[in-house]
Design brief:
It is built from six helices and five strands. With 127 residues, the chain is of the alpha+beta class. It has a five-stranded mixed barrel.
Length: 127
């Protein structure tokens, strides 16, 4: 009787775990990962260097926002820089993030592993 109760308990726990996580679409889960990431909207040039200092001096920018906007005008792209681990995320929605240049934000979206691009569903300023 004890083995039956234990087996029933395991089946219930596994069933509950599957129902909570759902049945993932394998093709999507392999390539796309839902994400919520906190970071700063930078330009790709400065993010690669991990600093705005050089470009701010070169472009005579007064702050990170001005530097980021100037670098994008010069051909760079907007990216999300996670300051904790220095990960740089390429962003698909350049127009959506422009107003947040140089700011700390939270991006809600989907990361596409095959392209390395973070698809922005929503962006929120962090105050």
């Amino acid at each position: 009787m004890r083995k039956f109760a234990l087996a029933l308990f395991v089946v219930v726990i596994v069933g509950l775990a599957v129902s909570l996580t759902g049945s993932p679409d394998l093709a999507q889960s392999d390539q796309q990962q839902p994400m919520t990431i906190r970071g700063e909207i930078w330009d790709s040039t400065c993010a690669a260097a991990s600093t705005h200092a050089k470009m701010m001096a070169k472009m005579e920018a007064k702050d990170a926002k001005e530097c980021t906007l100037n670098c994008v005008k010069a051909g760079a792209q907007f990216v999300l820089l996670n300051p904790d681990d220095k990960t740089i995320y390429r962003l698909d929605s350049q127009d959506k993030v422009k107003e947040y240049a140089g700011q700390m934000v939270t991006v809600i979206g989907t990361f596409d592993r095959s392209t390395g691009i973070l698809h922005v569903d929503r962006i929120e300023s962090v105050t």
